[in-house]
Amino acid sequence: xxxxxxxxxxxxxxxxxxxxxxxxxxxxxxxxxxxxxxxxxxxxxxxxxxxxxxxxxxxxxxxxxxxxxxxxxxxxxxxxxxxxxxxxxxxxxxxxxxxxxxxxxxxxxxxxxxxxxxxxxxxxxxxxxxxxxxxxxxxxxxxxxxxxxxxxxxxxxxxxxxxxxxxxxxxxxxxxxxxxxxxxxxxxxxxxxxxxxxxxxxxxxxxxxxxxxxxxxxxxxxxxxxxxxxxxxxxxxxxxxxxxxxxxxxxxxxxxxxxxxxxxxxxxxxxxxxxxxxxxxxxxxxxxxxxxxxxxxxxxxxxxxxxxxxxxxxxxxxxxxxxxxxxxxxxxxxxxxxxxxxxxxxxxxxxxxxxxxxxxxxxxxxxxxxxxxxxxxxxxxxxxxxxxxxxxxxxxxxxxxxxxxxxxxx
Length: 410
Description:
Blueprint: H1 13-19, E1 31-32, E2 36-38, E3 44-46, E4 50-51, E5 57-64, E6 66-67, E7 69-70, E8 75-79, E9 85-90, E10 96-102, E11 110-115, E12 122-127, H2 141-150, H3 169-181, H4 187-191, H5 208-217, H6 225-231, H7 248-260, H8 265-275, H9 283-304, H10 311-336, H11 341-365, H12 372-388, H13 402-409
Antiparallel strand pairs: 1-4, 2-3, 5-10, 6-7, 8-9, 8-11, 11-12
């Protein structure tokens, strides 16, 4: 995850959705130890004990493990409702596993676990029932946030309600995610659908869900994204908001995240249209992110010509420059209270005319520097604060920003 900050959260509905108790789905049973399963292409896996049964459950389960980047060579385990723990194998270089079959008698619901390869802690994901052939089960910070909320300390898998009712796991998880992000995505976007994650060698490999996790992580670079999401459920949080993908400031950060990966502006619209939940109204989201993406692509293109370092230095500098521009614009848009149309466009254009040059100049001067991100972060915050305290009306086309622009540059 990149270091960036974002003020944004989810509404109190998040907390309300999780407040109701879990019902009595699932169940436990006796088991026999010594069973062994296989994980297909991910390698051999063994169990520490399984419940009774005679045939391996062949689901051909596959999925992706990601934590900002795809987690390569990560060891995956899965625990059954009666406490059986099975080693599923390890992920490949793209954070993927495939072909896993559950051992005889394995009982659901179950929870997958992966130890983080960077930082500390564990990522988990609930599998509520026996997966069908070819189904996916992913592990990432969003699945961890849901697991922590629905299976708090002291609760058991055997007591998890996996029915289709309002108190059931699936309904709760979907409500939580759509409260946070809006109707364009749901829990399945992160947990059950094929999940594309960025890799160290391919910054454009990630899909919409992966990019949303990166954007959420920008709330506070000192905290894990699942912790940020959990604290956002607090109804007393003064920054509480819902439907982040409908929030113009969040949209700016999302577009900035995508362009900073080296994507062309047109890819932003294409990705959202292709990966959003069917039937979701994405009209405003597409309009705003398209405007942001075009502006940030201009920053990227202008900065490319100024970079003279190695490929890795250029890549890091360009990413930091675009992300800083996106955060600055998001802060200004949020302060000005604009949400769409000409007002938003004018605030974007007037603001970008002032912040673009200084950010590119700093990126050029400090190429390859270990403190580049910190310097850009401090600069963008100073510039956005100066712009936000100015009396210049940025909602007007061609606003007189000459004097303010000089102050921002200096």
